[in-house]
Amino acid sequence: MKRRSVNETPFLAGLGIEPENPWITGGLRRAFKGKSGLVTLELCAGGGGQAIGLEQAGINHVGLVEIDARACSTLRQNRPKWNVIQQDMSVFDASPFVGVDIVSAGLPCPPFSVAGKQLGKSDERNLFPSMIRIVDQVRPRAVMVENVRGILDGCY
User: Which of 44, 72, 109, 155 is catalytic?
Assistant: First the structure.
């Protein structure tokens, strides 16, 4: 994992957004934050369907992480101002995004879906451990993960 140098400014601070303690309520929201006053870091953004829904809800994106080059191209063409990050989530360093309000994700569902083989932890597409690591790094106020039937089954 790439370590950030001590002198490097965290991404959010560079935008004028200081990390907030999620356990303290109130306080002023910065101008960068959307109509809702919230910002999100989106993982496995795909073509942007979930991201557009969040945008329509007034939530701004500080980053959209996606590994697929074509999906990243689509995101950049449709929303040129979005910070699209083409990177494998398993090696993504989310520490510059400490202080975001929400980590949202559209993780691959075949490892858990009743429509798939339900290999869970044995499936190479299982990105839940990476998502948990990123949530631990960022410590958002909320986490929103796309749900599929079977994701809460006791076998996982």
Answer: 109
Question: In this predicted structure, which of 17-21, 54-58, 123-127 has the lowest mean pLDDT?
Answer: 17-21
Closest residue by Cα to residue 104 from 136, 72, 61: 61
Whether 109 is a known active-site residue: answer yes
The secondary structure element, H or E, covering residue 51 is helix 49-56
Q: How far is residue 118's CA from residue 151's CA, in Å, rounded to a whole number?
A: 9
The identity of residue 18, as a single letter, is E
In the chain the beta strands, taken as DSSP E runs, fall at 39-43, 60-66, 84-86, 102-105, 142-145
Cα–Cα dist 103/95, whole Å: 13
Average pLDDT over residues 35-43: 88
Q: What is the CA radius of gyration of the chain?
A: 16
Token pair in block for residue 7: 């002198």
Rounded CA-CA distance 71/67 in Å is 8
Round to whole Å and give the CA distance between 156 and 43: 21
Topology of domain 34-145, per CATH?
Answer: Rossmann fold (3.40.50)
As given in the structure block, the two tokens for residue 38 are: 């919230």
Which residues make Cβ contacts (< 8 Å) with residue 121, sequence separation at least 6?
111, 156
